[in-house]
Structure formats: C-alpha cells, structure tokens
Amino acid sequence: MSKGLKSFSAILLCTIPLFGDAKPLFMGDSLTYQLAMSYKERAPVDAKFLESTGLQSTKLLHWQNYIQQVSFHQYDTVYIVLGTNDLIKQADIPSYQIKAQQFIQEIKKQNKNIVWLLPPTLKNEQKNTLLDNTRLAITQAAYQEKVRTFDMRNALGKNYTSIINGVQVRTKDGIHITKDGADIVVNAIIR
Predict the structure, then answer these.
(1) Which 3 state secondary structure label does DSSP give 15?
(2) I want to staple 28 with a disulfide (CB 3.0 to 4.6 A). Which of 43, 54, 82, 97 is the partner?
(3) Class assignment of domain 23-190?
(4) Which helix (H) or strand (E) holds 115?
(5) Running DSSP on this structure, what letter comes out for residue 50?
(6) What is the pLDDT of residue 94?
(7) Distance between CA atoms of 54 and 28, rounded to whole angstroms?
(8) Residues 81 and 28: beta-carbon distance below 8 Å
C-alpha cells in the first residue's frame, strides 16, 4: 500500500445499516474525503483516497497497481472519484479511456456494482475545457464496461458556482466541495 494513501472506516451509530449488510467504498482523489464523510452520516462507509492523484500520473500513486491489492468483493458499491486531476487534451481521450476501462475491468473482477462520480465544474475555465475531455473519456469507458456514472455537475451545477440557495457548496480554491456540497451530491446519488 502506498505510504501516502489515506484510508478510513467510519461507522454510523445505528443497529442496521441503511443500505443492506455491506457498505460502500469511496475511492479516489481529494474530493473523495468530503463525499465519504457526508455518506458516513447516513451509513457505514470505507474510503481510500490520496490527494493530487489520478489515472494520468503515477508519480504519487499508481492506481492501477494499487487496486490489485484491494478486496472489492466486500463492498456493496464501489464509488470511483477520479478525474479532477487528469486534465487531458482532446487527442488524449482515447488513451485515457483505455486507462479508465482497465481500471474498471480490474475492479469488476471482484465487484460489478461500480459508480464513477464525474468531476464537478471547476472555477478555472481553461481547466474546465480540459476536464470536459476527461469526463468524455470516463463516460465512454463506463459505457463500454456497462457501469454507471453520476455527473456531480447535475447536483452542483453545470456552470461553476460556489453558493447554491445561499449555501456555500465549494471551497475558495475553486476545485473542492464543502460539507454542504458533498451532502448535496450524496443525497443525489442515494436517491
């Protein structure tokens, strides 16, 4: 296991989990933490995440190698939260799609119930243009592998906004989501 990878298991104090016997796994970059913390208010959850990581760069963590050590069969759902750090050009869509498909295929060997949470809109427009390519590659990979996606923009807005209905949903860095933002996303994915 990578030294920097953060992992936690959070248990909500209730006698019966809300979603069956098994708990979900949230796995990915720094956005994962806030989403998992929001989810744990509802039911047990595990999370594995490392800041500033993605499928494109293997400098901090080689996700493809790492997931071969994870027991995915113990989870009812695997939520993937990767892509925000992978700002790719249009020409890189096919190669990134292959990486995403290989990532999904490795998880599917143990668990077919996968949901890839697509990155939210960023404050930086130039990065958003590149992130659109990343979202497209992930969406195509998920379609090919017959796994679900959830676009966080559906919960947080297609256009970047830090406040929704008077509630701060994004952090000042224009990338991350607040607890309230995570609550909105989690409420949308568990409906």
Answers:
(1) coil
(2) 82
(3) alpha beta
(4) strand 114-118
(5) -
(6) 98
(7) 7
(8) yes
> From its phi and psi, is residue 52 left (phi > 0), alpha (psi between -120 and 50) or beta?
left
Question: Minimal CA–CA distance to 120: which of 145, 144, 150, 98?
Answer: 150
By the 10 Å C-beta count (0-12 exposed, 13-18 middle, 19+ buried), 149 is classed as middle
CA–CA gap between residue 2 and residue 137 (Å, rounded): 26
Lowest-confidence region among 2-6, 8-12, 30-34, 157-161: 8-12
- Tens of pLDDT, residue by residue over 16-58, are 234 445 799 999 999 999 999 999 999 999 999 988 889 988 8
Q: What share of the chain is helix, strand, coil (3-state, %, to 5)?
A: 40, 20, 40
Asked if 147 contacts 104 with a C-beta cutoff of 8 angstroms, the reply is yes
Rounded CA gap, 54 and 86, in Å? 6
Helix (H) or strand (E) segment spanning residue 183: helix 179-189
Per domain, the residue ranges of the chain are 23-190
C-alpha pair distances (Å), 112 with each of 26, 30, 57, 144: 15, 24, 25, 13
Tokens in use for 95?
Answer: 């190669």
For residue 97, give Cα distances in angstroms to 101, 103, 127, 132: 6, 10, 18, 13
